[in-house]
Amino acid sequence: SEVFLPHGAEVQHLDDPGDSGVGKSCIVLRFVRGQFDPTSKVTVGASFLSQTIALQDSTTVKFEIWDTAGQERYAALAPLYYRGAGVAVIVYDITSPESFTKAQYWVKELQKHGSPGIVMALVGNKADLQEKREVPVQDGIDYAEKNGMFFIETSAKTADNINQLFEVFLR
Ligand code: GDP
Ligand code: MG
């Protein structure tokens, strides 16, 4: 996938992964290409992908997806991607309580600065790693409910609930 950076943005080396690694890029690649690449590269800035879904009544819906980098150093760029977005997917890793805390930061950020009426989903990814789970599913459900968001646990690795995640927005 191509990397798009806003004009004037610098490409920097990523020596502190921060809250990256929750599986955002893998979720998008699973949805768009039906693939899982365990060696996929860290997203720099953001990349753009699209996927068109045919509905039963033969109309189509085109998802235009910005896959952002979650790193703190790119936080200033994030509004460039979520401004004007109708939908936001905030992902954490069910094996990482830190990533769940960071997801809550992004929820608040989008509540403050996202488009009015933005539809948000909270996603607990890496659901295939049940034996390493550190974020109880109920914590995700409760937080999402309190904040009026959809909630789903996914695995980009096994493809579990990936299509269901995007179908939520069609509904
Ligand atoms: P991002 O920084 O949020 O975009 O995370 P990536 O999509 O780059 O994934 C980070 C790492 O987690 C990679 O090593 C992936 O192979 C791995 N990963 C992503 N999704 C899953 C998943 O559902 N299950 C497991 N076991 N690993 C995953
Ligand atoms: Mg990424």
Keyphrases for this structure?
single chain; 171 residues; alpha/beta; 3-stranded antiparallel beta sheet; 3-stranded parallel beta sheet; 30% helix; 22% strand; disordered N terminus; binds guanosine-5'-diphosphate; binds magnesium ion
Provide a descriptive summary of the structure in words.
The structure is a single chain. The chain has helices at residues 24-33, 78-82, 97-113, 137-146, 162-170, and strands at residues 3-4, 46-54, 60-68, 87-93, 119-125, 150-153. With 171 residues, it is of the alpha/beta class. Helix 3 links the parallel strand 4 and strand 5. The model is unreliable at 1-18 (pLDDT under 50). The structure holds guanosine-5'-diphosphate (GDP) and magnesium ion. Residues 20-26, 38, 40, 42-43, 125-126, 128-129, 155-157 line the site of guanosine-5'-diphosphate. GO terms for molecular function: GTP binding; GTPase activity. Keywords: Nucleotide-binding, Signal.
